[in-house]
Automatic annotation (TrEMBL), chain A:
<keyword id="KW-0456">Lyase</keyword>
<dbReference type="Pfam" id="PF01974">
    <property type="entry name" value="tRNA_int_endo"/>
</dbReference>
<feature type="domain" description="tRNA intron endonuclease catalytic">
    <location>
        <begin position="119"/>
        <end position="203"/>
    </location>
</feature>
<dbReference type="InterPro" id="IPR006678">
    <property type="entry name" value="tRNA_intron_Endonuc_N"/>
</dbReference>
<dbReference type="InterPro" id="IPR011856">
    <property type="entry name" value="tRNA_endonuc-like_dom_sf"/>
</dbReference>
<dbReference type="InterPro" id="IPR006676">
    <property type="entry name" value="tRNA_splic"/>
</dbReference>
<dbReference type="GO" id="GO:0000379">
    <property type="term" value="P:tRNA-type intron splice site recognition and cleavage"/>
</dbReference>
<feature type="domain" description="tRNA intron endonuclease N-terminal">
    <location>
        <begin position="32"/>
        <end position="108"/>
    </location>
</feature>
<protein>
    <recommendedName>
        <fullName>tRNA-intron lyase</fullName>
        <ecNumber>4.6.1.16</ecNumber>
    </recommendedName>
</protein>
TrEMBL record, chain B:
<dbReference type="InterPro" id="IPR024337">
    <property type="entry name" value="tRNA_splic_suSen54"/>
</dbReference>
<protein>
    <recommendedName>
        <fullName>tRNA-splicing endonuclease subunit Sen54 N-terminal domain-containing protein</fullName>
    </recommendedName>
</protein>
<dbReference type="GO" id="GO:0000214">
    <property type="term" value="C:tRNA-intron endonuclease complex"/>
</dbReference>
<feature type="region of interest" description="Disordered">
    <location>
        <begin position="247"/>
        <end position="266"/>
    </location>
</feature>
<dbReference type="GO" id="GO:0000379">
    <property type="term" value="P:tRNA-type intron splice site recognition and cleavage"/>
</dbReference>
<dbReference type="Pfam" id="PF12928">
    <property type="entry name" value="tRNA_int_end_N2"/>
</dbReference>
<comment type="similarity">
    <text>Belongs to the SEN54 family.</text>
</comment>
<keyword id="KW-0819">tRNA processing</keyword>
<feature type="domain" description="tRNA-splicing endonuclease subunit Sen54 N-terminal">
    <location>
        <begin position="65"/>
        <end position="128"/>
    </location>
</feature>
Length: 233, 385
């Protein structure tokens, strides 16, 4: 059985033809973000638009997806993993804390790990999937860690619901949990992608993530009845 | 029963039991029961009068459903005797086709417990134990065991998959699948015995071609050594024939069989989410994307010890499709290998599945079937990196 993945195009017309998958700061101006304690906020509307248009990063503070409410005080909120990626792997973002001091990689990871003890695993998965050209969004509304899209959430439905695990975790292999998350994902034509991440023990610079390794598992419900019926004809 | 008087010419028969008429017989063969429809499901005991009434009606309905006299054809059944020691049912009398059931040993046909149970449930088997006929209820205890075991889930899976149209057979381990020994195999084995001093494997020795090939080789040897050739053409021809067979074997085997089969079965070592790399945007920004390609896909290296320890997951059944020409005597590669999970068991992890694949214990894609607490079965396919 060869593996093929679901990739359903949305019905709306293509809004943005000239988008690039990653933002860059060719004109020399770096994006400026402020760490609020939960996420990183981009206040400048132009920068916010540019970040969202090139790679669909972040979420409008007053919208479901892109910042498009039209309100002047709408900001772009970046999740912890994506802001870390933009700041320290793509090197286009400067993050300051609420007092206005610059946050370096070490400090940022420390704060993020306080929030989420799985941050390093999540970050490794984020970088792993990003290097494969996926657009990554939070998966909280489907009960997972990430949702990954082809090109843009505007154009395609998410193909996978990603669940990140540490090596010893067996939570999602409990039959009721796995079946539950699968049913939720299946109603919207997604597959469940389980990533088990062996994170590096000690991380002091962005490059240390090279020590991390990932295994991928996709478990799919299989309708044995329709399979055998389709083969009989 | 019958009275016969000398005066009358008539014979009166008074049957002891009453017999059903033809119409009644047909009506009883397909009695249909409509379940009583009643409002919302109840989740708690309330003890109210209406609830008691509802309960009473439900019980009456069940009783009515169960107490209908059942009509079945007595003849259409095979007869088997349960052997409790070996936990198999020996078929004494066959009835109808038995093509995909049981296995033969020393000329006798035996049924596994799940096969016997299934045939019993569908009314094709009469099972006897210690000289008396076993009822279905007794068979559950006798065949599936009094204590809780995996036998019940195995039977459930067997029955559900058989009913939905698969041929379900006991899992055959890859090395046990009998390879067909051709005469060319025998010639090769003989040659390596003579030239390289390697003993001839048993399965080749048992082949009907072996002795023919051995004889022929002796003949040829005889003719070459004695040089008393009456008809040299035949000798040359024979050698030619052998070479022809040999060549074909060498050419076809490695390309056709193992290479493609292995390729199909394993996705190991490859990522499952690489598809977007073929996109135009990826090619355009490849330099940048490659910069973050730092998190690696884990590749497992197993030590010999790890490989030798048996996996906790057991492949129980093989699934075949009906239209693929399955034969019990010469099983082909199955369509799926079935692993059964009980309701409490956790799903196999990446590493457990990877280990099975690495040990190459499977012969087909693995189908993980979980039996839930409510005895529903659900199948899952695994794709791993």
């Amino acid at each position: 059985m060869q593996f093929t993945f679901a990739c359903k195009r949305k019905r709306c017309s293509n809004k943005n033809v000239n988008s690039t998958p990653l933002p860059s700061c060719q004109d020399g101006e770096r994006y400026k973000g402020r760490f609020t304690g939960l996420s990183v906020e981009i206040v400048d509307p132009e920068q916010a638009k540019s970040l969202y248009d090139n790679g669909c990063f972040g979420k409008g503070s007053k919208s479901r997806g892109a910042p498009e409410s039209g309100d002047e005080d709408e900001t772009l909120l970046l999740g912890m993993e994506e802001s870390c990626f933009l700041a320290h792997y793509l090197n286009v973002l400067d993050i300051t804390n609420s007092a206005g001091c610059f946050m370096d990689f070490h400090r940022f990871v420390e704060v993020a790990e306080e929030q989420n003890d799985k941050f390093l695993e999540n970050l490794a998965s984020y970088v792993y999937l990003k290097s494969k050209n996926w657009v990554i969004k939070s998966g909280i509304k489907f009960g997972g860690d990430f949702l990954i899209y082809k090109q843009s959430p505007r154009l395609y439905h998410a193909s996978f619901l990603v669940i990140v695990q540490k090596p010893g975790d067996s939570d999602h292999y409990q039959s009721k949990n796995l079946k539950g998350v699968q049913r939720v994902a299946e109603t919207s034509d997604k597959d469940v992608l389980l990533l088990t991440v062996q994170a590096p023990k000690d991380i002091s610079c962005p490059r240390d993530l090279q020590e991390a390794s990932v295994t991928e598992t996709i478990v799919r419900r299989f309708n044995y009845l329709t399979f055998v019926q389709s083969k009989q004809q | 029963m019958d009275t016969k008087t000398q005066d009358s010419e008539f014979v009166d028969i008074h049957p002891r039991n009453s017999y059903l008429s033809a119409q009644q017989l047909i009506a009883h063969r397909h009695t249909e029961f409509e379940p009583p429809s009643g409002g919302l499901k109840r989740t708690q005991n309330e003890g109210t009068a209406s609830e008691l009434e509802e309960l009473k009606r439900a019980q009456e309905y069940l009783r009515a459903q169960l107490s209908v006299p059942r009509i079945e054809r007595l003849g259409g059944r095979a007869l088997a005797i349960w052997n409790a020691e070996q936990q198999v049912a020996e078929v004494i009398r066959k009835d109808g086709k038995f093509e995909n059931f049981g296995y033969s040993e020393q000329g006798k046909l035996y049924l596994e417990y799940y096969e016997a149970m299934f045939l019993l449930e569908v009314g094709r088997l009469q099972l006897e134990y210690c000289g008396s006929v076993v009822s279905i209820e007794q068979a559950y205890v006798l065949l599936l065991g009094e204590l809780e075991s995996e036998r019940y889930s195995n039977y459930l899976v067997y029955s559900a998959l058989s009913r939905s149209g698969y041929i379900v057979v006991k899992h055959v381990r890859p090395q046990e699948i009998p390879q067909e020994v051709t005469s060319a195999d025998c010639i090769w084995a003989l040659l390596s015995e003579k030239v390289a001093d390697q003993p001839v494997p048993d399965h080749i020795k048992n082949s009907p071609f072996y002795h023919i090939a051995e004889k022929r080789m002796e003949d040829v040897k005889e003719r070459i050594t004695s040089q008393k050739t009456e008809d040299p053409n035949i000798v040359v021809e024979r050698i030619d024939l052998q070479f022809g067979q040999r060549k074909r074997m060498a050419d076809e085997r490695p390309i056709k069989e193992p290479a493609s089969k292995k390729e199909k079965l394993s996705t190991q070592g490859r990522s499952l989410v690489d598809q977007l790399k073929s996109e135009f945007t990826y090619a355009k920004f490849e330099d940048i994307f490659e910069k973050f390609e730092m998190v690696q896909l884990k590749t497992q290296d197993y030590t010999k010890e790890e490989l030798d320890t048996p996996s906790a997951l057991k492949i129980i059944f093989d699934l075949h499709l009906h239209n693929k020409g399955f034969k019990k005597s010469a099983p082909t590669t199955p369509n799926f290998n079935v692993i059964i999970l009980s309701s409490q068991a956790t799903f196999p992890t990446h590493d457990e599945i990877a280990k099975i694949k690495h040990q190459s214990l499977h012969t087909a894609p693995l189908l993980v079937i979980s039996v839930s607490e409510s005895k529903q079965i659900q199948a899952f396919l695994y794709y791993i990196s």
